[in-house]
Amino acid sequence: MTGTQAIGNVTVFNPAPVTRELNAIFYKYAKAQQFLQGIDVHPETHPEAGYPQFVPPDTSGALLTNIQASPSQPDSSDPDSPSAPSSTPKLLHALTGPGDDTPNIIGMPPMAPGTIQMLLKDYISGAMDVLYYGPLNFGSPPQSLTVDIDTGSADLWVPEGCQGCGNDQFFSKQSSTFRRSTTRCAITYGSGKVSGTLATDIVGLGTASVSGQTFCAVRKESSDLNDEPNSGLLGMAFGSIAQSGKATFFENLLAQKQLAQSVFSVHLTRTRETGSQVCFGCYDATKAMGPVRWNSVISRTYWSIAMDGLSVNKTLSVSANLTAAIDTGTTLIYLPSGVADDFYALIPGSASAMQYGAGKRLTRILDSVANNYTTGFYTVPCDTTVTVALILNGETFSIYPSDFNLGRTDVDSNDCVGGILALGNGFPQNLAIIGDEFLKSWYSVFDYSGRVGFARSINNG
């Protein structure tokens, strides 16, 4: 996770939460190379079978309204830039239910049949958006607990009978449908470790619910998780990599035909506690501007797509043949060290940030094997005006400038820490982790037919 410390009018970078996220990334993606090669994965159930191909709403002939930009967001003549014109129109539209050909166009889209909206809160530390979490119901009668939304993992867990856990817990004795197994579960990702036993119960959101949903009933969690506002975590990667070996909540909703479409869409705000959301079975066109640009999924494990490189100011670029995991549960962007070095070499005045452990060796025990990993931070001039973008499937996707800048190295420094970090020895050299730093600029559609789509977010309008 990330954070900053505000001193007067100057924002100073706080490395501690970033270091915690770096450490956790190695655990979270410890088996990524095997998974992406189809090793040690569970059989695919293809819960999207029987659903029609998702088509984003057509903006032609629909009600449009001009969106007034915040004065703090600059204009640009480039429609793909994070600082696009404030007069860009947006569509006010909600997906309709199956068989209904009439769009429902009003100021705020209602939830149509087969669609569920989870409203998220943004946990903000200093000037940084750390994580996004929303409510999920457990048991009979339902108990509401908050979960971090994580497309980089596939397990669901909440605390239950957990001594020392700091947030709200699930009281299993109050649920008539709770069933505990004897199978142990232990999950390490995000910023800590949890352990307990696998259990099943009714898990629901809005009008939809899944009977017999498997989750980890956590009895023990590391103390650093007590600093976070959410009780648990909802994994939304493919169930093929679930440590439980069971289908995810979203996959069960699909299998039980409770959704109108085999997609979920994510809108993440920037330094706003409210306004973020996940749209289950739907696409909220009030959160996006312009067309959806699609990227085929490489492996039905992570939401993994092809990344061709990065660009600076649209004229300079670094070529790379990477697999990018789109991960709402990660704050920043992580690249192989060689690619990160080449990228920062394109930014005048950039340097390796040795004071934060650039090239630092981390020793971790993964699958009973000691592995050494190296990590890297970089600085750029605080007054740099470069435009940074990812190149995905041959197309350029910009990152909003303030999201790339993590803060000054010191209150009097002119150097700021860049939001793209390096993962070196011991980490797959063809893997990139693309977190919220990127997703805040792009409304994201995760389609179980095997693709990920991005439309420019209203955050940048």
From TrEMBL:
<protein>
    <submittedName>
        <fullName>Acid protease</fullName>
    </submittedName>
</protein>
<dbReference type="Pfam" id="PF00026">
    <property type="entry name" value="Asp"/>
</dbReference>
<dbReference type="GO" id="GO:0004190">
    <property type="term" value="F:aspartic-type endopeptidase activity"/>
</dbReference>
<comment type="similarity">
    <text>Belongs to the peptidase A1 family.</text>
</comment>
<dbReference type="InterPro" id="IPR034164">
    <property type="entry name" value="Pepsin-like_dom"/>
</dbReference>
<keyword id="KW-0378">Hydrolase</keyword>
<feature type="region of interest" description="Disordered">
    <location>
        <begin position="67"/>
        <end position="102"/>
    </location>
</feature>
<dbReference type="GO" id="GO:0006508">
    <property type="term" value="P:proteolysis"/>
</dbReference>
<feature type="domain" description="Peptidase A1">
    <location>
        <begin position="132"/>
        <end position="455"/>
    </location>
</feature>
<feature type="active site">
    <location>
        <position position="150"/>
    </location>
</feature>
<dbReference type="InterPro" id="IPR033121">
    <property type="entry name" value="PEPTIDASE_A1"/>
</dbReference>
<keyword id="KW-0064">Aspartyl protease</keyword>
<dbReference type="InterPro" id="IPR001461">
    <property type="entry name" value="Aspartic_peptidase_A1"/>
</dbReference>
<dbReference type="InterPro" id="IPR021109">
    <property type="entry name" value="Peptidase_aspartic_dom_sf"/>
</dbReference>
<dbReference type="InterPro" id="IPR001969">
    <property type="entry name" value="Aspartic_peptidase_AS"/>
</dbReference>
<feature type="active site">
    <location>
        <position position="327"/>
    </location>
</feature>
<feature type="compositionally biased region" description="Low complexity">
    <location>
        <begin position="68"/>
        <end position="87"/>
    </location>
</feature>
<keyword id="KW-0645">Protease</keyword>
